[in-house]
């Protein structure tokens, strides 16, 4: 337990959180300007494209990048990197071919003209996004948190500057998407400078095949889990866009992006440091339960005040900060704060799942949560529920399953310690 609470561990969290804080501060400072440059419609198209990208990325790499942190030696790491990148390239070629062949059919989809020119950059966007996932996982394994934090802050500044300056001339979804892709490319290239010694290991094809087999649980269980989660998280954007127009999707996109800032800043920073720490503890025969429990309680205590504040004052807060045309986004935020608070405190249990080998159960919960979300949206559609209440019911269902998930995983971690740690 001492190794978990020592100065080195806390320092790593502080370094990651500091870089993330700078990046989020930059985003916060630019957000009131960007919401006055871009319309809810433009932000809605950007949000829809981003949602599609988050669905395609885990399909491209089959979740293998997340095995990088827990690999036991550098040869296995290099083979995992090669496997992840190879799968990504293959998928992007397949995606480009599929889009080319099926374009006449796709172009018949209602409102497709809003996305017409964006179709052809989708394979490139997936390649960039998946490469960034690989680079991030290597950086986490190598614990180059200071460099990673600095690069993240710099890329945030670049993205927001591009969105603002280019948006003053062309306030279109294409500018938002292009700026985001540029930032991800910048982030990946700079990280590569620090991880080159790791990724330059000599790789044998047999080693790549071996990793594909030994870490197949990531493809079989982790990828569907991620995919189901992002699909169900993307459903409200698609549902709102289809039922209430792209402006509603824009309100949702802004609200969720603002409220996920503390999730990325604190919960995400803790998770990036906690994951390799738990992996090392497991390899050395240390207990995991107290580490996970203390982290979860700490996040609960940290998050309860800001998320409650948004729940109470959401509409007024968005009205003041982003302008009166975004007040509806604040109404969405009131309810999204419930769901995202549960996401905020889920980070420790999410990171311990692959370490204790419970990815099958995590997949089951992902399916359960998706079914609950789909049922909520289906009922809302049938009853003609107003957009704000669609977000409310969706958030309450997500919160309920997440809290149940936390308790179940904590119990399994306790049992794991009792069974395997002496």
Give a short summary of the structure:
The chain has 422 residues and is mostly helical. It has 15 helices and no strands.
What does this structure look like?
With 422 residues, the chain is mostly helical. It is built from 15 helices and no strands. It has helices at 2-5, 7-37, 40-61, 74-106, 122-142, 145-169, 173-199, 205-214, 216-244, 246-259, 261-283, 289-322, 327-356, 359-383, 387-420. The longest helix is centred in the C-terminal third of the chain and has 34 residues, at 289-322. The protein is globular, with a radius of gyration of 21 Å. The protein starts with a helix and ends with a helix.
List keywords for this structure.
single chain, about 425 residues, mainly alpha, 15 helices, about 0% strand, globular, disordered N terminus
Distance from first to last alpha carbon: 14 Å
Beta-strand content: under 5%
The description of the largest β-sheet is:
none
Helical/strand content category:
mainly alpha
Outline the low-pLDDT stretches: 1-5
Helix percent band: over 70%
Q: Helix and strand succession?
A: HHHHHHHHHHHHHHH
Secondary structure blueprint with pairings:
Elements: H1 2-5, H2 7-37, H3 40-61, H4 74-106, H5 122-142, H6 145-169, H7 173-199, H8 205-214, H9 216-244, H10 246-259, H11 261-283, H12 289-322, H13 327-356, H14 359-383, H15 387-420
Helix pairs in contact: 2-6, 2-11, 3-4, 3-5, 3-7, 3-9, 3-10, 4-5, 4-8, 5-7, 6-7, 9-10, 9-14, 10-13, 11-12, 11-13, 12-13, 13-15, 14-15
């Amino acid at each position: 337990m001492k190794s978990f609470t020592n100065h080195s561990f806390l320092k790593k969290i502080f370094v990651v959180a500091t870089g993330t804080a700078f990046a989020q501060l930059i985003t916060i400072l630019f957000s009131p300007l960007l919401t006055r440059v871009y319309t809810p419609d433009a932000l809605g198209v950007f949000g829809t494209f981003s949602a599609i990208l988050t669905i395609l990325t885990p399909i491209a790499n089959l979740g293998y990048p997340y095995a990088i942190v827990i690999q036991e030696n550098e040869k296995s790491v290099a083979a995992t990197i090669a496997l992840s990148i190879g799968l990504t390239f293959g998928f992007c070629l397949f995606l480009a071919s599929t889009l080319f062949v099926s374009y006449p059919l796709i172009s018949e989809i209602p409102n497709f003209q809003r996305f017409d020119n964006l179709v052809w950059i989708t394979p490139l966007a997936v390649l960039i996004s998946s490469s960034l996932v690989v680079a991030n996982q290597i950086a986490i394994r190598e614990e180059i948190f200071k460099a990673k934090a600095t690069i993240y802050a710099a890329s945030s500044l670049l993205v927001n500057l591009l969105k603002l300056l280019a948006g003053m001339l062309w306030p279109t979804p294409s500018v938002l998407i292009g700026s985001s892709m540029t930032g991800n490319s910048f982030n990946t290239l700079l990280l590569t400078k620090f991880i080159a010694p790791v990724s330059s290991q000599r790789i044998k094809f047999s080693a790549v095949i071996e990793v594909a087999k030994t870490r197949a649980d990531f493809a079989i269980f982790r990828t569907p889990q991620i995919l189901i989660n992002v699909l169900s998280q993307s459903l409200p954007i698609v549902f709102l866009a289809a039922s209430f127009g792209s402006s509603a999707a824009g309100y949702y996109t802004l609200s969720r992006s603002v409220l996920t800032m503390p999730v990325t800043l604190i919960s995400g920073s803790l998770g990036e440091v906690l994951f390799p720490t738990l992996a090392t503890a497991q390899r050395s025969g240390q207990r995991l339960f107290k580490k996970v429990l203390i982290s979860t309680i700490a996040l609960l205590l940290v998050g309860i005040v800001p998320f409650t504040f948004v729940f109470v004052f959401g509409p007024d807060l968005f009205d003041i900060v982003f302008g009166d045309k975004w007040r509806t986004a604040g109404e969405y935020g009131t309810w999204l704060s419930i769901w995202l608070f549960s996401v905020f405190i889920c980070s420790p249990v999410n990171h311990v799942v692959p370490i204790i080998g419970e990815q099958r159960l995590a997949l089951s919960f992902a399916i359960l949560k998706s079914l609950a979300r789909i049922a909520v949206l289906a009922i809302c559609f049938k009853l003609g529920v107003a957009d704000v209440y669609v977000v409310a019911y969706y958030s309450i269902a997500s919160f309920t399953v997440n809290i149940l998930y936390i308790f179940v995983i904590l119990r399994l971690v306790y049992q794991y310690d009792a069974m395997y740690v002496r």
